[in-house]
Write a structure and sequence with these properties.
The complex is a heterodimer. Chain A has no helices and eleven strands. Helices cover 0% and strands 56% of the residues of chain A. In chain A, strands 2, 4, 5, 9, 10 and 11 form a six-stranded mixed beta sheet that branches. Chain A has a five-stranded antiparallel beta sheet with strand order 1-3-8-7-6, with no helix packed on it. By secondary structure, chain B is mainly beta. Chain B has no helices and eleven strands. In chain B, the strands form two sheets. In chain B, strands 2, 4, 5, 6, 9, 10 and 11 form a seven-stranded mixed beta sheet that branches. In chain B, strand 5 and strand 6 form a beta hairpin. Classes of the chains: A mainly beta, B mainly beta.
């Protein structure tokens, strides 16, 4: 069964303190991995898609990387507005299903 | 403005009373999907649709029905709601495949079944 696990569940950082969020997965035939950001009371917003191991993508203070078993979302010098829940998602092989992890709730303290 | 809209945003109902949550997108997207979000369980896919008249089950389809008669609309139907369907529901759409392309999410519908 395809599984997606995110860690940690919650992370509190001081403003400017860099860190990484982890998304590990067990799927047959990885076709890609998505990262989304979700603010309280809102729907998720797309951040990145990574399609193959070794791929990296950046957006402002965020950088996503992908290996054969996991993905990392690195956040550099975060600001309070980066506070949100970060979700990763992996498509199933052979159909159009998408499995999300339970997310990492990130809080940046000023 | 490109968007996914859901109605209603909040709904309190009683067990067994049929309800429909509407979802509409104005981006001419082929793919649409419904998710439910519960604390500790994350976002789980209920149903998805690749195009008009083409729907398929996600991971948690029991107790739900969908239909896709028009490209822009994808209603979620609960024929006989039960308390375990109390949840936050999101509709999403994508240009084509939702497993290859980013999905655009609606604002959510908070459903309480008493």
């Amino acid at each position: 069964e395809d599984q997606v696990t995110q860690s940690p569940e919650a992370l509190r950082l001081q403003e400017g303190e860099s860190s990484s969020l982890n998304c590990s997965y067990t799927v047959s035939g990885l076709r890609g991995l998505f990262w989304y950001r979700q603010d309280p009371g809102k729907g998720p917003e797309f951040l990145f898609t990574l399609y193959s191991a070794g791929e990296e993508k950046e957006k402002e203070r965020l950088k996503a990387t992908l290996t054969k078993k996991e993905s990392f979302l690195h956040i550099t010098a975060p600001k309070p507005e980066d506070s949100a829940t970060y979700l990763c998602a992996v498509p199933h092989f052979g159909n159009e299903k998408l499995t999300f992890g339970t997310g990492t709730r990130l809080t940046i303290i000023p | 403005e490109a968007q996914v809209t859901q109605n209603p945003r909040y709904l309190i109902t009683v067990t067994g009373k049929k309800l429909t949550v509407t979802c509409s997108q104005n981006m001419n997207h082929e793919y649409m999907s419904w998710y439910r979000q519960d604390p500790g369980l994350g976002l789980r896919q209920i149903y998805y649709s690749m195009n008009v008249e083409v729907t398929d089950k996600g991971d948690v389809p029991e107790g739900y029905k969908v239909s896709r008669k028009e490209k822009r609309n994808f209603p979620l139907i609960l024929e006989s709601p039960s308390p375990n369907q109390t949840s936050l529901y999101f509709c999403a759409s994508s240009v084509t495949s939702g497993s290859y392309n980013e999905q655009f999410f609606g604002p959510g519908t908070r459903l309480t079944v008493l």
